[in-house]
Sequence to fold (632 residues):
Amino acid sequence: MGAYFVDKTYFFKVIAMKRSIMFIVLAALCAIALVGCSKESATTSAAAPAAAPAQTTQTAPAPAQEVKAEEKPATAEAPVVYEFPSDIFGTGAVGANGAAACASPIAAQIAVDILERGGNAIDAAVGMIYAVGLLEPAASGVGGAGQMTVYLADQDKYVTIEYMTQAPGAAVAETIETSSSDNPPAVTSIAIPGVVHGTLTALEMWGTMTPREVLQPVIDLARKGFPVTERWNTNIEGRYQNLKAYDYTMGLYTDDGFLYSVGDTVKNNDLADTLELIADQGIKGFYDSAFTDKMVDYIQSLGGILTHEDFAQYRSVVREPISTTYRGYTVYTTGGPSTGGAALLEALNIVENFDLASYGPDSPQTVNLMAEAFSMGYKDGNAYMSDPTYYDLPVDTIISKEYAKERAAKLNPDVKQKMVGAGRLTVKLNATGEEVLAKNATDQGGTSHMVVMDKFGNVVSTTNTNGINFGSAVAVPGTGFVFTAHLSNLNNSKTASVSMLMPYIKVVSTTCPSIVADESGKPVLAVGSPGNWALVSAAFAAIVNYIDFDMDIAQATNAPRTWKDGMTIKDLYIEGGYSPETIKAVEAMGYNIIDADRTYSSHVGCIAAIEKKDGLFYAIGDDRRHYGAAAF
Fold:
């Protein structure tokens, strides 16, 4: 597996001990917050168990509550403990019936509670999406967007559902301001949110529970409160200038403008009210009601351009996933309007032309090849992927083996390329057939990834995003969530180009939630990451570690990673977990080395993944951003 695991064993054990203490405290607070989650709902068919720490146990069913006088109470069976020795940070969980991983161990436990109540992976994923929106509101939420890659066991079918944000009807290039770099971002950069439509559509099509049943635990948690984490404050510090422009938004996430102390309890009753409305009134209640008018009126009062009609016409889209084979496995992920899915598959196809296993994970050749392959995928995904409703995209070429072979021929394992460019491909407008220019606008992070597997065989890998952290920072008073500034991801120019700002085009994003299937076609891995374009690189690394280097998913997640900044020629973020010899050799190739002094870097993405092996579910949350997991 590489010497870098062995040499840092003591360091890993110390960190694991600290993280374990932290998660015990968080889980205890979670248990208090979640008592009676579903009992309060008249439509909930079964009570959710009280939250417990993310653990590697399978608990036996509780004995009957009524026991006749002449009978002795049944003795509860001891919990079954499953080993997960590669979970060095204590951020994983193992179970025989299902598992979940995401940005918060509390949210992961909510998902597992839904599974324990009889729900499937889609039910659990929807509950977890809203829970993460509550617990990590900077990265995703009701006002944001997302995509799911789903395996439906009863149909033996892989599908995706796309619920990206959408440009309003009045969004015409060069007529509005769409910058998100101002403090705060332009209100006219707010896009129509997709999360509610997408999640409720997925629930209706493939779930087994009602919106009320999956949302009630999140509603209860929002009302009873949850503990502030270190990352909560870090996200606020990073966008404080944006948040302070709006008193209501500051009141949602700070203590009258001051940061909460880690461990303090925070409530969001306004978001609970919004989730109550969604639970009771569904898609119509959010997109075509008096609540819609409330959102629209406030945004327009600030100078925004969203209308009631914009909300009412919104639709999520069920699409076929794009896929490629990789050394006997098949990788399924999202196509347009994702820019990252095609880039991921192209990178995998390129490195398939090289024997990475012979080089090993801790080698300059592997680092160089993966950096260059990712750069090629980045260039093509960024230049040529967009909303397929509007554009005829060259996705089949980008993810083809023939194209990858041409790209791979430009690479030398021992030499860094002087320049990496996009391929010579074309994109046409569907409406006119006119060829358009390649785009050069980048996604801006503010994202969260989640995965679920259930005992029925269903799998969900989903990435949700606010664009930049906290998006526009605009929260309509009384609603409890922020809207994105996602129109900044589109090209605000009248010169025709891919992803040009135009009415009702879906916003592009790098999200690439992925599922890996074995030779039989059954899913063995669900994986993804947040982190702008680093999320593609992180998923790429995890899949290569799992397949080429025979790592289990915890090892594949915790192994050192790199990220080559596609906007530059030389910048390579490389974690200090690589051997000094490898780092020096990579630098000698001509890379500008960044973060080599850090064992783990915040720039290389953050994996949430589940591996199914030998009848068990191994879930892992990346400690780089304090992700967590739960299983039963």
